[in-house]
Amino acid sequence: MINKDLKVAVLGACADGGFGTIISCAAMVDKTGRSWPGQFSVASDDMLSGMKRLASSLKKKNVISVVQLHHGGIRAVKELCGGVVYGPSEMNFEGINVQALSVEQISTLEDSFVEAARRCEKAGFDGVEIHGAHGYLINQFIDRDINQRSDMYGGSLENRCRFLLNILRKMKTQLSDDFLIGLRLSPENYGNMSGIYLEDHLLLTDMLKQFELDYVHYSLFNVKKYPVEKEFKEQSLLEYLLASWKGSKTLLVAAGNVKSKKDAQELESKGSLICVGKAAICDPDWPNKIEQDLELSEAPFSEYELKQKGLGKAFIDYLRNRRFFEFKY
To answer: Does residue 230 have a pLDDT over 90?
Structure first.
């Protein structure tokens, strides 16, 4: 478990820095999905005390607080998740033998997401964001290349989306109407992170509209990029996604290589809210800095410099191992 005091300090610094909404790092909903050392957990009532302290701290700073709910699936770390890595289908992933989840296990994990969301509401957070991006478990079910099941959770796109849709359906009936429900998606593969084919993604949008989500958060890695699929070359990836939600009240949020005030203004002009990850790590006061046209911090960073920004060693090691940005040595 990541040090609670550091988490309060880091997210609190972002709140002080001008961010209107704070989304936590990926928080595991079940120990079988643990994907890195020190991962934030909302998987049991044992976590409620620390969760309440974090929620209370952010509430005092008048920001909207959202917890990102996560299960690593085939990207979980065997040594950290109980010795067995589970996914939609049996496979070998990066040298690890993955076991296929049973229908009963899938149903239990659906409930784990819902129970984690209820725990977040009880702790005093304003909402949750379901992590369906970056090749994690929800993304794996939807991915036609990874999901090779032949039951009600595999085959057709509707079946491959069933895990996510069941989670949303249960959340809508068990959470308060004013508790925010968001969803994070990545519509394409990027590096070693799998996404969802754009063709499938546009059809998924139609399935999602029934739930009237508060927002959908697109992790695009670059908000200006064009689709890789040859059938979609007439406009940017973001423009395809924005058009698919036309007429809906669901707010759209985009992230991906947004670094400067100009980047933010361009994104906002297209009708999307702005989300930053790396930029917030580099500059917890990023919104205040761009508002005042102040110089922004840029990588490479040393471990010492990141510790000065309030980051703990476990998170720094995660950033280094995942090559989020260049480090000084």
So the answer is: no
Residues 276 and 312 occupy one common structural domain: no
Q: Which pLDDT tens digit goes with each residue over 16-52?
A: 999 999 999 999 999 999 999 889 999 999 999 999 9
How far CA 270 is from CA of 116, 175, 240, 249, 290, in Å, comes to 34, 32, 11, 16, 19
Mark whether 62 and 200 lie in a shared domain: yes
Average pLDDT across the chain, whole number: 92
In the three-class reduction of DSSP (H, G, I as helix; E, B as strand; rest coil), residue 13 is classed as helix
Whole-prediction pTM value?
0.94
Phi, psi of 190 (to 5 degrees): -150, 115
Q: In terms of residues, how long is the chain?
A: 329
Co-location of 41 and 172 in the same domain = yes
Closest of 261, 177, 272 to residue 223, by C-alpha: 272
Under the phi-then-psi rule, with left for phi > 0, alpha for psi from -120 to 50, and beta for the rest, what region is 309? alpha
Dmax (CA) of the chain: 56
Q: What is the token pair recorded at 15?
A: 């709140």
End-to-end CA distance of the chain: 27
Residues 229, 168 within the same domain? yes
Please report the DSSP string for 103-119 in residue order: HHHHHHHHHHHHHHHHH
The residues that bridge with 86 in the sheet, in sequence order, are: 99
Share of the chain above pLDDT 90, in %: 78
Residue 273 sits in the same domain as residue 307: no
Three-state DSSP class for residue 209? helix
- Does residue 325 share a domain with residue 281? no
Q: How many whole angstroms separate alpha carbon 44 and alpha carbon 47?
A: 6
Give me the pLDDT at residue 50, please.
93
How far is 124 from 24, CA to CA, in rounded Å? Answer: 14
**Are 258 and 314 part of one and the same domain?**
no
Work out how many domains the chain is built from and give that number.
2
CA proximity to 169, closest of 151, 153, 156, 181? 181
* In a shared domain, residues 80 and 227: yes
DSSP letters spanning 157-201: HHHHTHHHHHHHHHHHHHS-TTSEEEEEE--S-BTTB----HHHH
Owning domain of residue 209: 4-298
